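Q: what sequence does this backbone want?
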């Protein structure tokens, strides 16, 4: 196949940051995606509908002239979120989901939830309002091995949560294990998952190839090859419970290449091409449109996009760095060749 035209996709998990960083990265997402679920882990986080409205305005102001892009906003759940905020969020129409970070799990999660049971009152309101819950599904206990944190979260927290709130719509975000795939397959129709390009293309070996590779470090961390294969199978299976969410998470070069580097892979520049390569590797390009453009809007009960994008078979080199703030930003797989290009 030399050319692939699909319905314009959306990104159901994206970090856009704020200020100069936002202005630098937003054009990349807007070129590829019509809409994105925008993560609320700013400093300070987006905790109220008023915060989300102001952040949305800043995003809209940063869209390059001539591009169309719709930010779908989220609220950051804390121990102190009020049920009234959920009702206001639903009424706002532009807040589409609420994000749960376990406190301390990842970038800017210090104000996240300290004990999931503390949020039952909120989950009850979300279930009633039909407001989706987006999960960073990892436990934070230091005694749990970093490679097992997703699996333990599913067993210890997610299964009981679903029993308590069987009608709550939940996205288990950026899944990384065959355990998560199995869990989602067995769960009721309210449960879906997003999958990133890095977890479809790389196993944890990529973190150590010829030396330590900080630009492949994200959370949840890359896992064994058998998990990558399970994710690839799920993404290309045509099952609508699995859809696209890049988790593109920009961090300036100096905050990645340092003694204690930040978690996050930057893929907004070339996300669709990366997914195309992953799907092509198992002869499943015919499944890309469903994964990238249909199942996400269907889950979020939004219309599918009316326009299309085209990828062509063409070799090009991913830049070593793209402009960001005062420092550069290193894209995922920088300096390597890609075989698909968006035209
Ligand atoms: O790798 C990650 N980066 N995982 C997250 O959960 C957060 C994200 C970020 O905001 O940088
Ligand atoms: Zn994320």
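A:
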């Amino acid at each position: 196949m030399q050319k692939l035209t699909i319905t314009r996709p959306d990104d159901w998990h994206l970090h856009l940051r704020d200020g100069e960083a936002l202005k630098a990265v937003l054009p990349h997402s807007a070129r590829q995606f019509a809409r994105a679920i925008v993560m609320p882990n700013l400093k300070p986080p987006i905790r109220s509908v008023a915060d989300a409205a102001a952040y949305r305005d800043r995003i809209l102001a940063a869209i390059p002239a001539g591009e169309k892009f719709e930010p779908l906003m989220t609220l950051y759940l804390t121990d102190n979120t009020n049920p009234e905020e959920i009702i206001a969020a639903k009424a706002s129409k532009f807040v589409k989901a609420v994000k749960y970070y376990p406190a301390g799990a990842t970038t800017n999660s210090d104000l996240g939830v300290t004990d999931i049971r503390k949020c039952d009152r909120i989950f009850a309101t979300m279930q009633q309002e039909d407001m989706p819950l987006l999960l960073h599904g990892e436990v934070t206990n230091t005694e749990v091995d970093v490679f097992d944190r997703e699996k333990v979260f599913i067993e210890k927290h997610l299964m009981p949560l679903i029993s308590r709130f069987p009608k709550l719509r939940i996205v288990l975000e950026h899944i990384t294990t065959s355990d998560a795939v199995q869990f989602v397959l067995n769960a009721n129709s309210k449960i879906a998952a997003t999958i990133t390009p890095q977890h479809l293309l790389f196993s944890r070996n990529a973190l150590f190839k010829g030396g330590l590779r900080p630009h492949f470090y994200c959370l949840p961390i890359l896992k064994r090859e058998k998990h990558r294969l399970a994710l690839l199978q799920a993404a290309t299976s045509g099952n609508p419970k699995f859809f696209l969410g890049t988790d593109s998470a920009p961090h300036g070069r100096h905050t990645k290449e340092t003694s204690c580097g930040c978690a996050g892979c930057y893929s907004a520049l070339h996300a669709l091409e990366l997914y195309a390569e992953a799907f092509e590797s198992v002869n499943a390009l015919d499944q890309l449109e469903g994964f990238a453009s249909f199942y996400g809007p269907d889950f979020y009960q939004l219309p599918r996009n009316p326009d299309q994008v085209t990828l062509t078979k063409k070799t090009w080199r991913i830049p070593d760095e793209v402009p960001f703030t005062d420092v550069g930003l290193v894209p995922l797989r920088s300096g390597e060749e890609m075989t698909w290009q968006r035209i």
